[in-house]
Amino acid sequence: AIANRTRVVFQSTFYHTMTDGSLCGPVIDDASLVGLRKKTAGRRLLL
C-alpha cells in the first residue's frame, strides 16, 4: 500500500444483499495482498 489506508474490494457473483443491507456469501479466511511491479496494474488479491 502506498498510503496509511488502502481500500480492498472483493468482487464475487456469489454475494447478495439481505433486506437489512448486510452481505451474504462465501467466507474468506485466508487472503494475501501482493504488490505488482507495474504501477498501472495496481494490486492483486490472491485467495
Protein architecture, described:
By secondary structure, the chain is mainly β. 0% of the residues lie in helices and 26% in strands. The chain has one domain. It has no helices and four strands.
Helices and strands, with pairings:
Blueprint: E1 16-17, E2 23-24, E3 32-35, E4 43-46
Antiparallel strand pairs: 1-2, 3-4
How many structural domains can be distinguished in the coordinates? 1
Q: Indicate the structural class.
A: mainly beta
- Strand line-up in the sheet with most strands: 1-2
Topology as a string of helices (H) and strands (E)? EEEE
Number of helices: 0
Strand content: 25-35%
Q: Note the overall shape.
A: elongated
Count of beta strands: 4
Radius of gyration over alpha carbons?
A: 14 Å
Low-confidence stretches: none
Can you give the helix content as a percent range?
under 10%
Distance linking N and C termini: 18 Å
Largest sheet: 2 strands, antiparallel
How confident is the prediction overall: mean pLDDT? 72
Using brief descriptors, characterize the structure shown.
47 residues, 0% helix, 4 strands, mainly beta, two-stranded antiparallel ribbon, two-stranded antiparallel sheet
